[in-house]
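Q: Hi! New to this. If I give you a protein sequence and the SMILES for ISJ, can you show me the bound structure?
A: Yes, paste them in.
Q: Okay, here:
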Amino acid sequence: MTQPQVSADPLVVRTVPLDDPGDLLALLPGSATTPDVTAWVRNGDGLVGWGAAAVLRPAGADRFAQARAWWVDQVGTAVVRDEVRLPGTGLVCFGSFAFADETGDSVLVVPEVVVGRRGGRAWVTTTSAGALTTTPEVAPVEPPAPPSNVTFSDGAMSGAGWESVVAEAVRRINAGDLEKVVLARDLVATASEDVDVRWPLHRLSESYPMCWTFHVDGLFGATPEMLVRRERGLVTSRVLAGTIRRTGDDERDLALAATLARSSKDLEEHEYAVRSVADALAPHCTSMNVPEAPFVLHLPNVMHLATDVAGVTHETDDVASSLTLAEALHPSAAVGGTPTSVARELISEIEGMDRGRYAGPVGWMDAAGDGEWGIALRSAEIDGARVRLFAGCGIVADSDPAAELAEAQAKFVPVRDALAGR
Ligand SMILES: C=C(O[C@@H]1C=C(C(=O)O)C=C[C@H]1O)C(=O)O
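A: Thanks. Here is the predicted structure of the protein with ISJ bound:
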């Protein structure tokens, strides 16, 4: 296990207002010189960062507890001057957590520079251990180069191999072992040179502006699913489960959306996911609103059944509150299954790969306990010239392996396209 790194000096943090810096992603410096660029952007708003003033690499079943303890320590010792005072100003960290308890490393990073924008207001935060640094100039840099000569190949399993794993899961469900399990597969993209993560980030945020485009320590993607957002006591979660592929023909897609909203298989799968989120949030909330029926979320590649769950939390003195909630929710039935423990065991028994940080919480938090933790979906892990893409599907009693494979293919599309040149 990687030992947690604790910086000895307290963090010195300063946030000042900024004139509109334009496209946040265009500010990220070249990844060859600054590998630690971080991003969390949706519809043009969000946070981007670079450099690492403090880093923690927790692992194992208590990775969230380690992360919380570290954050409580950082918040308790940091010297902060915040002239903007919005969620995401002052001391902030980005994080990305392993899906499983047994495998994979997680990471939390406090960037040296964070630039944020929210509702027409922008700011820059500088953080360093021990001494105050000067506020850097914030300006767009040279755009990144596209990945070169990208080829794709199967990851741990071929499509046919994965279909037989799905068929095995359907057998287990019909034997009464569990109700739902989410199974994923990976795909490997290989380029002829190291991939600059800023390229796919730009492409993803352009093509999927309604999703949260993220990058933390090599894991990037554009997720449509918000595990939990906490903002001044208001807690929200966007639950997705139940998917249909788009055809590109708007009229036909509308008809398909109506079919999705009536499909008992998809409604059942969705219900498990909503229930798992509502049950996990309930102990942390004084009041909650769980809509009775889902809406259909239209994305360029797929449509999902979606439910926005909202609640009010009474846990106002927890500086890691958003992470406490993310831990309580992970893994929801949207990425694990029902019952959770049986589904987790089945995933590690038959999926045949390590998910790493795919399908784990990814996002940011500040020193007030506010933050946003998405589920790292439509994502990939970048390692030099090699990029590992992930996609998964919820399997229930009447799932068809071939249809699930096609659904997984559709979920690879965002990152696949983002790795292509223009
Ligand atoms: C597991 C993934 O997606 C999840 C599974 C869904 C489904 O099975 O219908 C829909 C949205 C996500 O909650 C993925 O994108 O990899």
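A: Residues 1-5 have pLDDT under 50 and may be disordered. Let me know if you'd like me to explain how to read the tokens.
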